[in-house]
Amino acid sequence: VKSIKNRVGKVICPLGVGEDFEYWGFSSDKIIEMDSNETLRLGGEMKIHCLPARHFSGRFLNSNVTLWASFLIDGPKRIYLSGDSGYDTHFLEIGKKYPDIDLAIMENGQYNKDWNLIHDMPDMLPQAIADLHPKAVMTVHNSKFALSKHPWYEPLDNIYRASQGKPYKLLTPMIGEK
After folding, report:
1. CA distances to 108, 143, 154, 161, 162 from 175, in Å
2. Residue 105 — left, alpha, or beta (φ > 0 → left; ψ -120 to 50 → alpha)?
3. Dihedrals φ, ψ of 93, to 5°?
4. What is the largest CA-CA distance in the chain?
5. Closest CA to 169 of 125, 106, 103
6. What's the pTM?
7. Residue 106 β-bridge partners
8. Measuring CA to CA, which residue among 178, 137, 177 is closest to residue 158?
9. Coil, strand or helix: which one is 31?
10. CA pseudo-torsion sign 41, 43, 44, 46
11. Given a cut of 80, is residue 15 above it in pLDDT?
12. Which of 15, 20, 109, 153 matches a 20 to 30 Å C-alpha distance to 62?
């Protein structure tokens, strides 16, 4: 984050996270914090919606002092960013409130049965996608580093199988591909 600081115009983040950016050297006038279900109008038809997610925030001694969120970039195209989130009704509510999502970027991987409330398990990710009704899906949070004990390729194999015959297009760029 520090290495791109001088190339960033604004940082849009959940409530409480701005303090971290200030600690990393970002000027407070570059930071916009948003609450759940808040909308930021960027000009013209562009908006960003801060939406619910189910996770915890913080680490070590300061846990759960900031908001965990997902975001929807809403303009000529609708792009949903799930962030880390366990499955819950928020996916269905978001899909109903914001139909016609062009691309859903969904967390996939680094799951463990003990973390089922904060990370989508392989059997729940397809349901989250179905709740959102996106035209295309790309999964992230997989195949880069290991927090869990599943093989690195397993999340991509699982979503590939689960996506067969579904109405959305699954986008699976190669690792490192732009």
Report:
1. 14, 8, 14, 19, 20
2. beta
3. -65, -40
4. 48
5. 103
6. 0.88
7. 139
8. 137
9. strand
10. negative
11. yes
12. 109
**What's the full length of the chain, in residues?**
178
Helix/strand/coil for 10? coil
| Predicted confidence (pLDDT) per residue in 38-87, tens digit | 999 998 999 999 999 876 665 555 566 666 899 999 999 999 999 887 78
- What residue type is assigned to position 156 of the chain? L
Strand-pair category, 103-107 with 136-140: parallel
Q: What single-letter DSSP state applies at residue 107?
A: E
The token pair at 89 is 């009704």
Only one residue has tokens 């000529």, namely 76
How many angstroms separate the CA atoms of 93 and 71, rounded?
Answer: 13
Burial of 162 (C-beta count, 10 Å sphere; 0-12/13-18/19+): middle
